[in-house]
Design brief:
Number of helices of chain A: 12
Number of strands of chain A: 14
Largest interface: A-B, 46 and 45 residues
Radius of gyration of chain A: 25 Å
Strand content of chain A: 15-25%
Oligomer: homodimer
Shape of chain A: elongated
Strand order of the largest sheet of chain A: 4-3-5-6-7-13
Chain lengths: 343, 343
DNA sequence: GTAAATTATTTACGCGCGTAAAAATATAGC
DNA sequence: GCTATATTTTTACGCGCGTAAATAATTTAC
């Protein structure tokens, strides 16, 4: 059953009756050879175990078909989901995706870019940390390699940016909350790493002003990526201290909201929009678990698939046209209001 | 600021005053050259931008310093966490880890192994699907490359296996539940992919018999990786039909438990071990979100770090001694009971 | 059937590095 | 200071493949 192994392309050329340069053409683009020779090659490929040595293949190329995908933290479901979509898109387009997580450590982002550099990738899809990113390294990298940013923007870096329009999405939620009950307070991390956080805060302030309500922002102490723990500890503290001016809290993201819901449950507070409820909590991102919180979480859905698809397509277009000089494009997608039971 | 780029090792040899073969030695093992030459090299490295072309480096080697890490699904926090630990362990040991997720699709596991094959890895850490894995491909792969399995075992495949002792962990939980209230029913997927699921069912049956109670197993319909959704839909249905013989449910894993907790909340059931509670729910795995469910989930903690560390160390030992002939080792680690509020 | 166009083969070189062998140099021991 | 040992340099070859140029074979067009 196990097919005979072939050492190299010369040996394979011998057994399949096609010259080595033609084989080389075939492996670089199967459509570039005549149908009959292609058939001959593929029949031999079925009989013998041969695949080109990728190291030898890539040695001379100044660029490969590798695409790097760098995300801040694969443990965060948002990135694991969007990373998956991007990876599959690259694969479908005939590239070799390489997903790298920085595990929540900005220092690893730089390491990952350095590691990628050695792989001579055709392009990179990068969701940067933002504020915590080593911008000089990202910039230097983006000068050498086509880079498309997603999720978090760094002004002027990379060929393009695809993300969610926080102004639109937060306004959608604020409008809904104001219309259906008391105006929301805003709950966030004191020193958020992600630039979307500050965009959302700003959007909240502007939206509240437009609706003619007083804004109130409450900030949780704490560092790192344990958002649920921080949301639970700090949110719980604020709830028990009656720190919120209204009975409605808009959390900067779902993971904070999940923590706060847990704290509210522990305090015996009834959360939701029912008549017997004393608190409304809303989130942002449509985290995979937000359907299963108690109560289920009203939130904003970012269009993961669309962000992933657009980012990938944008990068492919740049790679295939090798046009790095054109105007940097920023694409902002709309969020959707997901009404569940928590608000 | 940007350092001058050096084309290749010859050019670098010229600017740093060390011969190319010595440089080659240095890059393969910095300790293999004299201190003074090492200093000379590293000073030049600081002044010039040079790194060896990894494709040229790996072209002739029959094995590289790459280590493949293949997990069934990075979207599952268990694997994203354990994958992270393993990745860092490889990195710390001077290897180049490459994490590949099969995204819940057994077919991708085979593709991932094939892709890894081309990378000539020194070894692979594999958490296989188990029942759904293409065992013949995994076997063929493991004959060529040192493979250490973790989480899920495939008898006789790979050099070693590291996982959790489901007998011990389930018994721990059953014992606790029986001692502190009504004996547990067991809730699981009807056709689970993961081999741990059937081990846990078996362990539950044996443990209940030892304790002298009647066992009851309830199985949720549904395929795929949406465990929370399945747990919620099927668990909710069973709860509302009073399908459970006792007021205590042990779920095969935390994700099912999270779904069932959500359903119980929707049904207005009070879950926990307090006097006013009518239902106890326990899980298994200590999922990162199990601290934040409502109520927080009593569960079994698998020792992620220890599994990761042991798996990595086992692989390193095999690689470095190049002993593939020795006895296949199976290591089972104990789980810990994490008592929270749900049971 | 013949000329033109397409495709394949032959030949040959180079990429960047690993690595082996012999010669040269540096270091350590006494 | 001298020998024995450790380390580096010199020289040279090969890895597996990309790729260019010239030639040969095949296909297409008419």
């Amino acid at each position: 059953m196990s097919k005979q192994k072939i050492r190299n392309m010369d040996a394979f050329s011998a057994v399949c009756g096609v010259s080595r340069p033609t084989l080389s053409k075939y492996f670089n683009d199967p459509d570039s050879v005549k149908r009959s020779t292609r058939d001959k090659i593929e029949q031999a490929l079925a009989r013998y175990d041969y695949r080109p040595n990728i190291y030898a293949v890539n040695q001379n190329r100044q660029t490969t078909r590798n695409i790097g995908i760098v995300v801040p933290n694969l443990a965060d479901p948002f990135f694991s989901e969007i990373g998956r979509e991007v990876e599959l898109a690259c694969h479908d387009a005939g590239y070799s995706p390489i997903v790298l997580s920085s595990h929540g450590r900005p220092g690893l982002e730089a390491s990952n870019l350095n590691a990628l550099w050695s792989l001579k990738p055709a392009g990179v899809l990068l969701a940067p940390f933002g504020r915590a990113s080593d911008v000089s390294i990202v910039e230097a990298f983006a000068k050498d390699v086509p880079v498309v940013l997603f999720d978090a923007n760094i002004e002027g870096v990379g060929e393009a940016f695809i993300g969610t329009d926080n102004n639109q999405s937060v306004d959608l939620m604020v409008e809904y909350l104001c219309r259906s009950g008391e105006p929301p307070c805003f709950f966030e991390m004191k020193s958020p790493l992600n630039p979307n956080a500050s965009k959302r805060r700003q959007a909240y302030l502007e939206s509240m002003q437009r609706h003619g309500f007083a804004a109130q922002i409450l900030q949780a102490e704490g560092e790192g990526w344990d958002f649920e723990a921080i949301g639970s500890a700090e949110g719980g503290r604020m709830l028990s201290e009656n720190a919120f001016a209204t009975n409605t809290v808009l959390c900067s993201n779902d993971r904070l909201a999940i923590g706060m819901l847990s704290a509210a449950y522990g305090l015996g507070l009834r959360v939701g929009h029912g008549p017997d409820c004393t608190l409304r909590i809303a989130g942002h991102d449509d985290h995979p678990y937000s359907r299963f919180t108690c109560p289920s979480l009203t939130t904003i859905a970012q269009d993961y698939s669309e962000i992933a698809a657009r980012a990938a397509q944008t990068l492919f277009a740049i790679i295939e046209s090798s046009e790095s000089g054109s105007q940097r494009k920023e694409t902002l997608l709309d969020g959707k209001l997901i009404m569940r039971n928590s608000a």
